[in-house]
Amino acid sequence: FSRDETPWKGVNRLVEAHVIEVGRAGPQAREYWQPDLFSPLSYRSDDEYADHYRHLFTDSVRRTARSHRKLAVEVSGGLDSSAILAVAENLRRRQELPAPGIAAYTLKFDEDPEANELEYARAVSVHVGIPVHEVSPMYNPLSWYRTWAKTYKEFPGYPNGVMAMGLREVARDEGCRVVLSGVGGDEWLWGNRAYYAEELASGRWRSLYECVRTDCREAGAMNALWWLGRHAAMLLPRCAEETLRRMRAVFSVRVNDRKAWLTPKLRKIASQRKADLALSFESRRFGRAGQRIQYETLYSAYSVIARELDERAAASVGMEVRLPFWNTAMVQFAFSTPERLRLRGGTPKILHRRAMAGLLPGNVLERKDKSDFMVTFRRHADAINSDRSLDMRREQHEWVLESRTMEMYNQFGNRQYEGEPEWMLWSLFGWSALASGLEI
After folding, report:
1. Less packed terminus of the chain by CB within 10 Å, N or C?
2. CB-CB neighbours of 309 under 10 Å
3. Does the pTM exceed 0.85?
4. Helices (H) and strands (E) in the chain — how many of each?
5. Distance (Å, whole) CA 367 – CA 107
């Protein structure tokens, strides 16, 4: 739950959008940027919002594309990375791309249909007119992760991040030094159903009616009414909202408690930190209901760590990864615009789709599904299950319950558990690898 802590005692991370100032009191971190929560962007039509968004996104791609070498673009076949390639190529044709050329790459999961997006990546290639090089994902053995932890004295990352290292090695060998990634698209383009609360609060009854009608048609009346009631509660006084939340907790049954495998001591620490974080959000005033979810995303500890791991992995093969969707102007745009522009019914990223019309092929623009990259974890199922030589190191006995951990070994690779055993056990494996690497 912390963005500034590291595995090292007394060593903190300099969090993004902060600087260190050194004075008589010693070094102090100061935040120099955060989104303006009370700067709404108001246009008369969705088309005007789309025009504004297209301009911002084009400028963000242009700024992040600067390189003295050919620019590499990762193209998964999804809406976000495909849009980066399309806009970059559009800039190149107008001679506005600050790089001498473009090379596009995608991962080919020939043996794993759930992760295979070649159909979409190839469609983007044809539509944009740029060949997209197909590279096999990198599947490294557990020993590779242990060596990484020992060498760099850090958590060795997750398989769904390491899978792209081979692609970036190919890009490097072909002369590229900068790669653009679509990370951040889900965070700032997806949207959330707080649009119900936003439309109620602003008294936009026609817009609210359209939201309800669309959700009834695509998700059913019961779901639409549940979403309406749930998000309308966000407008109640804080005390009433908290009472409803406690009542819901009493009557709900948790199928899988994510903290059930932790020791009582660590569970207590985690719960307290989560409560402290929630309290800090409660004390903040937001300009509209959907901003709270966005704010939690912006200040997510996992998001910081995941991006750091990806950047260091790219740097280890001689590449710099850049994220157009994390440009501050793009983030501010998300905070300044209502949620109804992003999500409606079962269709996320509505504004992005509207803005990219004509730049992307129809099957990509209309795509609503996402590939399942948990296959990269499941590839290690046999190795993880045979590697119970993790044998519960002394510090691990202070972290996790051995009996519950053994249950998760048996659940690893079982789709019924929606990936939770994979994430939890891999985290334990990674920290164990780091602890082992620190031993003299």
Report:
1. C
2. 18
3. yes
4. 22, 7
5. 18
